[in-house]
Amino acid sequence: MAIHTICITGEPVLHRPSAPVTLIDDDIRTLVADMFDTMDAAPGVGLAAPQIGVDLAIFVWRWEDEDGILQEGVAINPRLLISPVSIDPVDEDEEAEGCLSVPGERFGLRRSDRAILTATNIDGDEFTIEAHGWLARIFQHEFDHLLGVLYVDRLSEPRLTQARRAIRKEGWGRPGHSWMPGEDFLEG
Ligand code: ZN
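A: This is the predicted complex of the input protein with zinc ion.
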């Protein structure tokens, strides 16, 4: 098991759809274990394979919910259904989202309150989870990564301009930037 460097926005692997997993072998099991290690070290509540430079449709999550129950798992070749999104104004505090590939930044983003995730687990079995609230947000965020979409791509104004400005100020938005959890403290 190992902690990997995390790609920052601008790295091409983050901006293209990832390939389906065809076989769950030891390489995939090691990759998933490394993804959990990297996510925990960051720290974060979700991580998609493209964020560590691997072009495969896998994400992991680990998050203690409002009732103190640990929600965690791995989704391989996921599909996601979401309910319609409310058109109410975004609540900047309640709906602030972040991403390990845009480290240290937070912007309010409206997400669907309900998401149904269907995917393959590490044993090769299909599962379905119906999620609400923050877990539904995590699923939407991580699923987006596998489409090559970052949450900042989904922002509306004025947050979109603010995010683009923050990314430009850091010199990100082009290839070659990454950070190392445990060595660089950009999150948390
Ligand atoms: Zn992210």
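The beta strands are 6-7, 46-48, 58-64, 70-82, 96-97, 107-108, 114-120, 126-132, 178-179. The chain has a mean pLDDT of 95.
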